Amino acid sequence: MTTAVVTGTGVVAPNGLGTEEFWSATLRGENAITPIDRYDTALFPSRLAGQVRDFEAAGHLPSRLLPQTDRMTRFALTAADWALADAALDTGEADRTGLGVVMAAGAGGFDFGQKELQNLWGKGPDHVSAYMSFAWFYAVNTGQISIRHDLRGPTGVLVAEQAGGVDAIAQARRALRGGARAVLTGGMESSLCPYGMAARIAAGRLSTRDDPRRAYLPFDPDADGHVPGEGGAVLVLEDESRARARGATVLGEIAGYGTAFDPPPNSGRPGNLGRAAELALTDAGLTTDDVDVVFADADGSAERDSAEAETLVRLFGPYGVPVTAPKTMIGRLCSGGAPLDVVLALLALREGVIPPTTGVTPGHPLDLVRDRPRPFDGTTALVLARGNNGFNSALVLRGRGKDLK
């Protein structure tokens, strides 16, 4: 059986560009949630977001790519470059059919799409970019990464909102088991434009508070919904034997995966987040006793937080395992959020420290890691992710120790 391991990571996040900057800022508890400043938000009930700062696409990508790419695709291309460099993976080999790309996206190039629709209605069809045909599409990140690095192996895109970031990593693991040599995977989002925010607001799950410190409070009795964010992560997955044969540094293993869809609303039946976690643990050959830390989905709404807390208590007992949700510092990044949690979980296992959940006073019997990092001696992490309308996914990760080759 193929063992899928992570050998490289690339991160674009509201609190850091690059994996190390993101990790350091998260350990420091830096809150990157701020008022949206790209347009006038006076008419919007939700006005906060985790925005990526100091990202200049021209400094990372060829000029020819800029007119044809949305902001999220520029993030994805840059993160993919960084992940490949981190993995020291040579994609210039003769047979590129063993190199694939599987990404997740929940929205697509909303910012690009909005601008071109404005051109259509304001100036006419002659002013709409030819690149509109693909730049808005949720599969565009997969395609652009594949083209940029001439990767001709298995490709795909997973669309399951927040859960999609976990699903994409699992699909990449399947591709390795099918014979692929390496797969770039993860998720990247940027839909903070007026069009994107209008769509999010319509779902009725965003916080309407203006205080960045009190807007996104998962598991807190004062929870008011979540704050959106942009960014995500790209990971390089390889078969362990091949990775070690080329001398790669192994950050950790994708040990187990599970997914389960919720029953219809108002059915009276409970959600299936716990079922997804159980399937992931079974896939990994582990039990709940083996889990050392949980990276929670942390929706930020009273109903969904209660459901997740009840699931965790059922699985691990009251205060049974450390739980954290560092996304309180950056917001929920749709499909980009879970890959960032995976990066944090692998680094936590390597460095022996759990990053904190900030600003939250828990109202549930959870051992929440609050406000400052917590040292621990763990080898296994569980990452949970839910998508709107019933998606539940879980990933089990095994650490491989600091500086282990």
TrEMBL record:
One short Pfam name that applies is: ketoacyl-synt
A GO BP annotation: fatty acid biosynthetic process
- Protein's UniProt name: Ketosynthase chain-length factor
Species per Swiss-Prot/TrEMBL record:
Streptomyces swartbergensis
Keyword flag Magnesium: no
Query: Which keywords fit this entry according to its UniProt record?
Result: Acyltransferase, Transferase
Ketosynthase family 3 (KS3) domain location is 1-399
List membrane-spanning regions: none
Q: Which GO terms describe its molecular function?
A: 3-oxoacyl-[acyl-carrier-protein] synthase activity
Q: Which protein family is it in?
A: Belongs to the thiolase-like superfamily. Beta-ketoacyl-ACP synthases family.
**What PANTHER family would the database entry show?**
POLYKETIDE BETA-KETOACYL SYNTHASE 2-RELATED, POLYKETIDE SYNTHASE-RELATED
